[in-house]
Automatic annotation (TrEMBL):
Biased composition (Polar residues): 412-429
Residue ranges occupied by any Helicase C-terminal domain in the UniProt entry: 259-405
Organism of derivation: Schistosoma japonicum (Blood fluke)
Keywords, in A-Z order: ATP-binding, Helicase, Hydrolase, Initiation factor, Nucleotide-binding, Protein biosynthesis
Annotated stretches, region: Disordered: 412-461
Pfam family, one: Helicase_C
UniProt family annotation: Belongs to the DEAD box helicase family.
Name used for this protein in its record: RNA helicase
Compositional bias ranges of the Basic residues kind: 442-461
Length: 461
């Protein structure tokens, strides 16, 4: 896929681009933090949007995963913070505790050389009394989930008198999770002023960012903002530059584990995220892979906060190279070394989750690979719907997947793919006719599996 260009963005007005971080007029200590974090050149959305946030404009920004949306609002809001005022100047809301913790990590890293204090407030992380104590010490940035932030607002622990910016990250997901009432109450508590003509207006800016922005959500968020700058990517552009996408028709659910083993023996990557659709299957698949000798971590919504942080620490450090995850974590996994994403199950309830899943790879200009398994008519239909929705072609996996994965500076060395279906290589994209053809191919492939004494595995749902 080609990198996004200027023409890929729908922008509400003429906006100047800033091709380097140095050209944005940022504080020296903030620049130092940006470079120390590993950023060298701003992404296109950063070139367009950071300066608008610094100018105090309301912003509605949509771009795909991995393009640096978090850094966009983090850099813009950090530039405007007055360190000498130890009161909340930036409030960032996220739909999940995992994403809130990740944003807190980015803010803390970028502000490493600034005298800026950031705390995270979300359910399951410490208790309310401890959070209140942290807030009483004086903080500049609060990152949290709407429910916990609203609770602390009602109790008077969070005070917004000096607030300069409210950021809604993954705004569409907050609405999908039924958090609209909480968002509206927080919105009503924002500082406001009365103009000379007796009209009430907010005294802080609103920044709304997301990877997807359905029309019904966009209308609501435009009501939250005043004359916003809108930087939107049409949904048919929501695919990742540097990420190659393929599918493997395994023929039957019970052959998915064997296909996953084949894939791992064929492609050499530093770290992999495997997505499944249920908590039970997360634990089951992690157990299956552990028996095969893989280092595996399991992530799902039933883990408590201590367990979640332990899992992510293991994965970030490389102690575990494979993370099995549910969609609960799809937007909170930000590990730059992820080279492969596997949809063991396709997302069946929400097509937009496909984008968030595969966006765990090919982050910040890196390259990566996304492979989806299909095993039945329902998954074949869903794959076609994903292709139609994003107007993309997802081809079948070629016979030499090891040639597909190229890192920034070198080609990954990997084993030859001996066991993936070579017949897939002759097809270019998933059409209905092709998907029907691959059923027969998969049946023939299963006979070969039997001859080699390979195991069928009963899948846990």
């Amino acid at each position: 896929m080609n990198p996004l260009s200027e023409s890929d963005f729908s922008i509400s007005e003429s906006i100047k681009s800033y091709p380097t971080f140095a050209s944005m007029g940022l504080k020296d200590k903030l620049l130092k933090g940006i470079y120390a974090y590993g950023f060298e050149k701003p992404s296109l959305i950063q070139q367009k949007t950071i300066k608008q946030i610094i100018h105090g404009r309301d912003v509605i920004a949509q771009a795909q995963s991995g393009t640096g949306k978090t850094a966009t609002f983090s850099i813009g809001t950090l530039q405007n913070i007055l360190p000498e005022i130890r009161q909340i100047q930036v409030l960032i809301l996220a739909p999940t505790r995992e994403l809130a913790v990740q944003i807190h990590h980015v803010i803390s890293s970028l502000s490493d050389y600034l005298s800026v204090r950031c705390v995270v407030c979300c359910g399951g992380r410490n208790n309310t009394i401890q959070m209140a104590r942290e807030l009483d010490k004086g903080v500049h940035v609060v990152v949290g989930t709407p429910g916990r932030v609203l609770e602390l607002l009602r109790q008077g622990n969070i005070r917004l008198g000096k607030l300069r910016s409210l950021v809604l990250d993954e705004a569409d997901e907050m609405l999908n999770r039924g958090l609209r009432d909480q968002l509206e109450e927080i919105y009503r508590r924002l500082p406001s002023r009365i103009s000379s003509d007796n009209k009430k207006s907010l005294d802080c800016q609103i920044v709304i960012v997301s990877a997807t922005m359905p029309a019904e959500h966009l209308e609501l968020f435009q009501n939250f903002t005043s004359n916003p700058v809108r930087v939107l990517v049409p949904k048919d552009e929501l695919t990742l530059a540097g990420l190659q996408q393929f599918y493997i028709d395994v023929g039957s659910e019970e052959w998915k584990c064997e296909a996953l083993n084949d894939l791992f023996s064929s492609v050499c990557v530093s770290q992999t995220v495997v997505f499944v659709n249920t908590r039970r299957k997360v634990e089951w698949l992690a157990s299956q892979l552990a028996r095969e000798g893989f280092t595996v971590a399991a992530a799902h919504g039933d883990l408590d906060q201590t367990q979640r942080e332990s899992v992510m620490k293991q994965f970030r450090s490389g102690e575990c190279r494979i993370l099995i995850s549910s969609d609960m974590w799809a937007r909170g996994i930000d590990v730059q070394t992820v080279g492969l994403v596997v949809n063991f199950d396709l997302p069946m309830n929400n097509i937009s989750e496909y984008l968030h899943r595969i966006g765990r790879s090919a982050r910040f200009g890196r390259t990566g690979l996304a492979v989806s398994f299909i095993a039945n008519a329902e998954e074949r239909k869903q794959l076609l719907e994903i292709c139609n929705y994003y107007q993309i072609a997802i081809p079948p996996a070629p016979a030499r997947l090891d040639k597909m994965l190229v890192t920034n500076n070198s080609v990954q060395e990997s084993k030859t793919v001996n066991r993936l279906s070579k017949s897939n290589a002759n097809n270019s994209h998933p059409t209905k006719d092709h998907l029907h053809q691959t059923v027969g191919q998969s049946k023939r492939k299963k006979k070969k599996h039997k001859k080699k004494n390979k195991k069928r595995v009963n899948i846990v749902n």
